[in-house]
Amino acid sequence: MALLQCQFSSATLEIQASMNVILPQGKAGPLPTLYLLHGLSDDHTAWCRQTSIERYASEKGIAVVMPAVNRSFYADMRHGARYWSFVSEELPELARSFFPLSPLREHNFAAGLSMGGYGAMKLGLSFPDRYAAVASLSGAMDVHRLAVDKFAGDMVNVFSDPSEIPGSAADLFGLAESVKGASAIPKLYQACGTEDFLYEDNIRFRDYCRSLELPLTYEEEPGTHEWGYWDRKIRRVLDWLPLAGNLS
User: Fold this and answer.
1) Is 245 left (phi over 0), alpha (psi -120 to 50) or beta?
2) Which range is most confident: 110-119, 139-148, 150-159?
3) What letters, b where the CB count within 10 A reaches 16 and e where it falls short, cover 125-148?
4) d(Cα 236, Cα 124) in Å, to the nearest integer?
5) pLDDT digits 0-9 by tens, 170-206
6) Which residue, 23, 55, 79, 195, is most buried by CB atoms nearer than 10 A?
């Protein structure tokens, strides 16, 4: 595998942006691609520093794109930059212009932890025609509750009014309902440790997706909000993705 640290100019963010990219060695493109998103306190280096994602991706022959989005909750922020537009529109186009990545839906996936789990689900449910599968690990599935109860300071910068989140384009529950019955629905994977502070939010989202009969794989086991858990589960995600050679 090749690990590239990439700094580039983002017209959307109006800054020099950063991403880490893992590319398979000895494999011709266009490559299947996983957009792997970081959590609230992390950056584009966190997945490589804290897990063995490079080794796991090498086993699967998949490219991995890891962008930096600061504490944006993958949103076009009220007080801040347009990180949702960056991740959902500009980043894939730029990454494909720099590297031999496939544009095909069946070759594109997203995953993330905590805030990044929310971002990955948001990508898949907002653009079901672009992603074949998305995965959330210990995801921040209910941003309305978090805006009110947990991260109120951050959310003031992100959203104009937390009371406007339910049913909006930022609400995973509303987005899940919007894809019910769609011709193209990505495979969904959700995992959360039973001792995680986000566990109850994950259970509510799981049950809601099941009520809508969405294609959700849900797994839980003892665990908290920590890298040992996410290292184990990202390997499981790569086994679960609909890649050639995977059985599940």
Assistant:
1) left
2) 110-119
3) bbbbebbbbbbbbbbbbbbbbbbe
4) 19
5) 999 999 999 998 989 999 999 999 999 999 999 999 9
6) 23
Q: CA-CA distance, 72 to 112, in Å (whole number)?
A: 14
Report the CATH fold assignment for 2-240.
Rossmann fold (3.40.50)
So what's the pLDDT on residue 247?
52
Give the pTM: 0.96
pLDDT mean across residues, the chain: 95
Exposed/middle/buried for residue 93 (C-beta within 10 Å: 0-12, 13-18, 19+)? exposed
Encoded tokens for 128? 């079901």
Q: Distance between CA 207 and CA 218 in Å, rounded?
A: 10
Query: What are residue 200's phi and psi, to 5 degrees?
Result: -65, -40
- Averaged pLDDT for residues 166-173: 94
Residue 109's pLDDT band, with cuts at 50, 70 and 90, is very high
The span from the CA of 143 to the CA of 115, in Å, is 9
Structure tokens at 101: 């990545």
Mean pLDDT across 231-241: 98
